[in-house]
Amino acid sequence: MSAVKNVLASVALACAFVSAQAQVNTNLTYSLALTDGQMTGRFYDGQPCDLESGTPDNRFRTMPITVTTAGDYEFVDQRESPTIQDGTLGIYSGVFSSTSLATNCVASVDDGATFTLAAGTYTLVMTSYGGTNGEGGDLPGSFRYTIDGPAAVRLGAQPVTPPPVTAVPTLSEWTLMLLALSAAGLGASRLRRKS
């Protein structure tokens, strides 16, 4: 009888081991500045998205992410550190529009939530909770999330906000031709005087 119990216990342990999925951790760190893209609103935990539009005045950055293995992914805000601010995330399948937050939004994260995601590429919208003038006013600031799932999430490059373009004044085509003609005339008159 004890041999049968040992065999059953071994089978149960093997089944539990096979059914348990190893979780892989991906760290996401980002920073926001007052020069980043502007949006009015923030994300709460939800699938589909739970959005608040209208407040606060906020900034955002986008990043492509690739989910290689379909499954449940847990997103957790790591704001416990005094140097890390309270962030929010939007997960989009397709193009993100800062004027239409609900369009293409698959899921949204505030403090932490678990979502079932299909394999594929998504647009991650990274923003803050407090914005520039909301509770806490956490911009500019640094933010951090961990993403746990059945496989690592590949993070694309964060776009770098380019410095503002400054116009350089140039002379028009006609002005350059008149300037060249004047220089030629001045040179010709000097040559005549020398000879």
From TrEMBL:
KW Amino-acid biosynthesis (keyword) present: no
Occurrences of domain IPTL-CTERM protein sorting (ranges): 166-193
Keywords, in A-Z order: Signal
Domain of life: Bacteria
Residues of the signal peptide: 1-22
InterPro entries from the UniProt entry: IPTL_CTERM
NCBIfam families (UniProt xref): IPTL_CTERM (TIGR04174)
Name of this protein: IPTL-CTERM protein sorting domain-containing protein
Species annotation: Ottowia thiooxydans
